[in-house]
Amino acid sequence: MTAWLVGSREHITPEQARDAVAWLSDTLGTQAADRIRTGGLIGHPDAPDVTFDEGVEHYSGASQFTLSIMLLNGALVSTLAMGDPEWLRQLTSNRQDHRTKPQSCACRKDGVHGHESSA
Q: What ranges does the record give for the region Disordered, renumbered to this chain (predicted)?
């Protein structure tokens, strides 16, 4: 699950990361600041970069940090993938060519992918 979040940095903009964290906070009825720390994994512009150990410490345990990671993956799926969890698979794939699946691509609206295809 962490690999999906870290991999999303190459596919989404900072604004999309911010939107995912805001969606999660709104959906759960929590303060955005409660979710910002995990947002660092996806490139949220207001969040620090976080290691797994730092996240565990911040959330007072591995189970709470893991829950936060799982929820943020769900927020990405909800805000960027039209609810399709299969979208997450591209985030850890070694071969990512968005031209084959534009409907599931979370690239910027101007068509810039944020990474270069190795094809």
A: 93-119
